[in-house]
Amino acid sequence: MTSKPAILITGASSGIGAVYADRFAKRGHDLVLVARDGARLASLAERLRSETGVAVDVLQADLTAAADIARVEARLRDDSRIGVLVNNAGAAGHGGFLDQSPDQAADLINLNVTALTRLARAVAQRFVESGAGAIVNIGSVVGLAPEFSMATYGATKAFVLFLSQGLHLELGPKGVYVQAVLPSVTRTEIWERSGRDVDALPAVMETAELVDAALVGFDRRETVTIPPLPDSGQWDAFDAARQAMVPNFMQAHAAERYRAAA
Ligand SMILES: NC(=O)c1ccc[n+]([C@@H]2O[C@H](COP(=O)([O-])OP(=O)(O)OC[C@H]3O[C@@H](n4cnc5c(N)ncnc54)[C@H](OP(=O)(O)O)[C@@H]3O)[C@@H](O)[C@H]2O)c1
């Protein structure tokens, strides 16, 4: 057994989550891998055990199924070896808002928002009590760009960013590190799963490059990591503009432009 914390990674059966698993195993962390496809998780676990010698547990779970997510929440609450949660499982959904049925939109929110929040909540209490731990939430640049025509998906990812910033403010002073990672287009199965052709897009990042960059941000304890953004000053300016508004929200009267003409 290592003295390093174990890492629970959701959506570890493919794409970004599988690379996180590889990288944390190579850093010597034991792992708990979560996804629906048990066979893929088992074969990844076997490879990582033999290549790195770490202990890897597989937790087959559909995070949109109540009984399954309850098992993952219990593991996060009760297993004190787990010191990092990588909240990565997610889906993009097909087409635009009108292409998705109400049930499909709700399913997307259930996975990308409800499950992610429940898992963060499940682990946060223990992390705060021990004064340590990290929660990594995988958002998306789409959460900053309604122009990308993925309204429901983008809204779920805007939620992930906001939740991460809120948790950073609330849990950071209690010793818990929270990171939001905002990838842009990355070559994973999410594209074919949502009926899109990734090769039709102008620039595609490989998963290894994305995760290695995200881990640079993790090691620096960044709150928001946007691997593809060349100029971090643009994010800083955006966030500064938002913060400049905050003191102006508390007003007893509507702004002049909304006052009804006498
Ligand atoms: N690829 C991109 O361009 C991109 C860009 C921005 C953000 N992201 C975000 O990156 C994260 C990882 O996605 P990816 O790109 O690596 O796609 P991916 O290869 O499709 O991986 C998604 C993972 O989530 C798991 N998953 C899906 N539904 C699940 C459910 N109901 N319960 C449990 N696990 C479930 C999948 O495994 P099973 O099918 O085995 O359950 C898989 O391991 C997502 O949050 C995504 O929104 C991706």
UniProtKB/TrEMBL annotation:
One Pfam family this sequence matches: adh_short
Superkingdom as given in the UniProt entry: Bacteria
Record InterPro entries: NAD(P)-bd_dom_sf (IPR036291), Sc_DH/Rdtase_CS (IPR020904), SDR_fam (IPR002347), VLCFA-Steroid_DH (IPR051019)
Subcellular location: Endoplasmic reticulum
Keyword terms of this UniProt record: Oxidoreductase
The UniProt record lists the keyword Cell membrane: no
Family matches, as PROSITE patterns: ADH_SHORT (PS00061)
Gene Ontology MF, one: oxidoreductase activity
Keyword Transmembrane helix: no
Family, as annotated: Belongs to the short-chain dehydrogenases/reductases (SDR) family.
Listed PANTHER family: RH59310P
Record protein name field: SDR family oxidoreductase
